[in-house]
Amino acid sequence: MSSKERLMQVLVAPHVSEKGARVAEQGNQIVFRRRARCDQARDQGRGRAQFEVKVDAVQVVNVAGKAKRFGGRPGRRSDWRRPTWKLAQGQTIDFAGVEK
User: Fold this and answer.
1) Whole-angstrom Cα distance, residue 50 to residue 79?
2) What is the pTM of this model?
3) Distance (Å, rounded) from C-alpha 89 to C-alpha 100?
4) Distance separating alpha carbons of residues 82 and 16, to the nearest angstrom
């Protein structure tokens, strides 16, 4: 598996929320969902390699998975991390033009 394919598996999707929209407008920041077993040190490189943008800073919040019931049986959703990338001045990521 190439490093580009590994990057695609780490970042799950952009995280859409009210707070994410607010920080995107005010501070040129993007919020993502990513897998729990990844390190923060490589996030700036991920932005450069996957989206071709310069990332100035990264903040990561660990989100614990909720305990839920699945068909009457107790279960648990996966833990995940919410990295917030502060993009360099003049840098943007356009998700509308990206095909899935």
Assistant:
1) 23
2) 0.71
3) 27
4) 11
Report how far apart, in Å, the C-alpha atoms of 88 and of each of 39, 53, 66, 100 are: 21, 8, 34, 25
Q: What are the tens digits of pLDDT across the range 33-81?
A: 887 776 666 666 777 777 888 888 888 888 899 999 999 999 999 888 8
d(CA 21, CA 30): 8
Residue 18 is encoded by which pair of tokens? 């009210």
Q: What is the pLDDT of residues 20-35, one digit of tens each?
A: 889 888 888 888 888 7
- Residue 83 · residue 35 · CB < 8 Å: no
